[in-house]
User: What shape does this take?
Amino acid sequence: MPKMKSKSGAKKRFRFTASGKVRANQANKQHGMIKRTNKQIRNQRGTTILNESDAKLIRLYLPYR
Assistant: This one.
């Protein structure tokens, strides 16, 4: 039986924590920072843990992680 292929776009955008949760970049921070409050910009630094319902879909895209 051949191996399943991973979605290459998902490989670049998502990582897994040691406990198996899915880590992703924060949304809404590519442009337009002048409109956003300083609090929102501060809170969107770094990465976030995805909701479990969203993480199920990502696990389908990355079958061997």
In short: Strands lie at 14-16, 22-25, 47-49. The two ends are 19 Å apart (CA to CA). The chain has one domain: 8-61. The mean pLDDT is 94.
